[in-house]
Amino acid sequence: MREKKRREILGKEKGFKPTSSGYIRIALGYPNTYSVGMSSLGFQWVWYLFNKRPDTICERFFYDTGNTTLESGRKIILFDFIAFSISYEMDYQRVIKMIEQTGLPVRADERDERMPVFIAGGGFASINPEPLAPFFDVIVVGDGEGVIDALLDRYHETKGLGKKEFLESIKDLRGIYIPSITFPVYRGGEIESFEGREVEQNVSFSHPVPFTPVVTPLSHFSDMELIEVERGCRFRCKFCTVGYVNAPFREYDMEEVLDVVNHHRIGLIGASLADYTKFDRIIERLKGRVTHIGVSSVRADRIKKHTMKSLVEMGLKTITIAPEVASKKLMGVISKGITEEQIMGFVNKANDSGIRRVKMYFLIGVPEEDLSDIEMMAGLIMKVNRAFNGEVRVSVNVMIPKPFTAFERLSLITKVDYNHRVSLLKKLIKGIRVDIMPYREAYTQTLFSRGDRRLFFDKNLDKDVFVYHMDSMNVLPWGFIKRG
Ligand code: SF4
């Protein structure tokens, strides 16, 4: 990246500036643009935690900033660690590209002792880290807080002994997965068992409350501070990883959340915000203190009218709900438990509060779904559109049968069934903007979330097995992860 551009980006950042002059050097990468990376609370939080250690310097790099770091412009291969924060499966190819661009061998087993230690962490690792296993020396499974300090302490203790000794020294830590120590044994093209130790997911709850220490107009959420108010979810909808993988549900104390509000534009982050115990009170307390608020999706049955009104007064224009399905039958299948009556009640509250836009998320490809369920979905969407005074937007995603959910072994919907459902939806929904996930994306997401370490190397691998035929597999690629 050119020096002028680097300075320009840094010049626009407000907030935390690392001052550590430590000797442990970490280059932390985000496999997407600077704008997307800086809107990731997880990425910014890990960068902050690393830099809070007096013995550590952590500098950032992004997909669009090349193979030098943003802070000093130093080449990332000169750092002790090259770390990646990876949230989504769809970023995997960019991760691989960024590793290739370092000029070092992409496979961990081809890199030698003198080369940096490659670490990965983030949402992907708690679900199924196997597809990226060959690229990394260490993968953090679960919450990063707690593991980071233990890992760097061991690095400090083994400094000078070499990479192998360091990896040996951390292998017993909770949440640490070392792909060269725990690996699958194949027989007849399938995983027969795992060699090495089970990996126990790390569960922690950091203090202070995680927030984005830097705001910038160049972030996707321009000049907005993001604050995590809860982790996991109270509910266990059968298709959703949040309720399973991020268990147990944890929420932050309201006063602690208020303590980290440093800007006038804030976004509250949580899987189901209206279920935060003191949601109504925290919104009242924030009134007058912030000029703009953003909230991630809320459950239609939980949000109260006066809270919605307060949110509108604080600049909220769009509110998002995720009914996922419309028929009673499918609500039961996915255990979502929201009724049409509750959704229409939500629409009334949205009208009374003066919100401008309602965004709704739906799923197709749910078990037991047939075309009558799709008709009901279209019917509900049109009913909401008629009843709501503002604009309605709809996103239709394909249900990805993800690891650790109740549907982890199910097949992805077939292309033929997908096409029938999409045509029907397009025929029945009129005058509303509807974004539908392309089938190719659903296929790739399923493959990347359920594949194993052969995925990016074995050209003869039958990829359809991971997408459509996992029901008969004895050992699943994520079978070595133990949940607390
Ligand atoms: S779909 Fe929403 S309510 Fe259900 S478990 Fe996931 S985050 Fe929670």
UniProtKB/TrEMBL annotation:
InterPro entries for the chain: Elp3/MiaA/NifB-like_rSAM, Radical_SAM_N2, rSAM, rSAM_horseshoe, rSAM_sf
CDD domains, sorted: Radical_SAM (cd01335)
Radical SAM core domain residues: 219-435
Database matches in Pfam families: Radical_SAM (PF04055), Radical_SAM_N2 (PF19864)
GO molecular function: catalytic activity; iron-sulfur cluster binding
Name of the protein described by the UniProt record: Radical SAM protein
